[in-house]
Specification:
The chain has eight helices and seven strands, in the order αβαβαβααβββαβαα. With 237 residues, it is of the alpha/beta class.
Length: 237
C-alpha cells in the first residue's frame, strides 16, 4: 500500500492517459469483521486510521498525476460496503481522488441494495466491473456459504446474464446519470467455459450500453412557448 508498486501504477496510468485507476484497500480490520468474540474497544478505528495514514500520500501522488484512485468495494478488504468506504473517506478528509470501483456481484452476495448504492455514491463511482452473481440461500447455508466449493455455494459468481443482477436497470441508471467511466467485463463463473463467457460477455455489454437520445420522444408535439397562450389555457386572462 505504499512505495514502488503504487508509484509505478500511478505513473503507468498517467503515461497511458488514463483518468481512473482500480485498486484494493488492504485488510487491517477484515479479520475482525465478525463482532464475536467481542473486539477490543477502538480496534476498528485504529485500523482505519492506519489505513488512511498509509493511503494519504498515495492519494496525493495520484492527485498530482490527475488520476482517480478507485477502490473496489470487495469482501476480504476493509472497504467492502458503503459504510466502510465512508469511514475511510472521512479519514482521508474527503480526498478528491478517493473514489469507487463499482462491482454489483460483490454487493448482491452481501445482500446489499446494489441499485440504491448507485444513487447514494453517484459522485464517487468512476469505474464499473460488469460482473454477474446469484444468491440462493437454503436451510443449510447463507451469505457465508459454509466453506463449500463454488458450485455448491449459496452465493456464487455467474457469467453475464446467467445470474440475478439487474443490468438493464443498472445501465439505464448510468445513461440517465451521464456516467462516463469504464464498463469492463470481469468474468468468473463456476459453470460456463471462460471463452464462451468472454464472447457472450462482450456482446452482453455492447447490447446493454444505451446511446443517449438528444431529444425527448414527444418533441414532435412541441407547441412552443407562449406566455399569453398559457395564461388563456389556465383561464387567467
Amino acid at each position: 500500500m505504499g512505495g514502488g508498486a503504487a508509484d509505478a501504477g500511478c505513473q503507468a496510468s498517467q503515461n497511458l492517459g488514463l483518468t481512473d485507476h482500480g485498486t484494493f484497500s488492504g485488510s487491517l480490520a477484515w479479520p475482525f469483521v465478525y463482532p464475536w468474540p467481542q473486539r477490543p474497544a477502538g480496534l476498528v478505528e485504529t485500523a482505519f486510521d492506519e489505513l488512511a495514514r498509509r493511503w494519504r500520500p498515495i492519494l496525493d501522488a495520484f492527485d498530482e498525476a490527475g488520476v482517480n484512485l478507485c477502490y473496489e468495494i470487495h469482501p476480504g478488504e476493509d472497504l467492502h460496503d458503503g459504510i466502510t468506504f465512508e469511514m475511510f473517506l472521512e479519514r482521508v478528509s474527503h480526498h478528491p481522488r478517493c473514489h469507487i470501483l463499482y462491482d454489483p456481484s460483490h454487493l448482491i452476495l452481501q445482500q446489499l441494495d446494489y441499485l440504491g448504492f448507485l444513487d447514494v455514491y453517484r459522485e464517487h463511482i468512476q469505474m464499473f466491473h460488469v460482473k454477474d452473481a446469484e444468491f440462493n440461500p437454503s436451510p443449510k447455508q447463507g451469505v457465508y456459504s459454509g466453506y463449500q466449493s463454488w458450485t455448491e455455494r449459496a452465493g456464487r459468481f455467474r457469467s453475464l446474464g446467467d445470474g440475478q443482477v439487474d443490468f438493464k436497470s443498472m445501465f439505464a441508471w448510468m445513461a440517465a446519470n451521464d456516467y462516463h467511466g469504464w464498463a469492463v467485463l470481469e468474468w468468473e463463473c463456476c459453470l460456463k467455459h471462460p471463452e464462451v463467457g468472454a464472447r457472450e460477455g462482450a456482446t452482453f455489454i455492447r447490447d446493454h450500453i444505451i446511446q443517449v437520445t438528444e431529444r425527448a420522444f414527444d418533441d414532435f408535439a412541441d407547441a412552443g412557448s407562449d406566455e399569453a397562450a398559457n395564461r388563456r389555457i389556465l383561464g387567467l386572462d
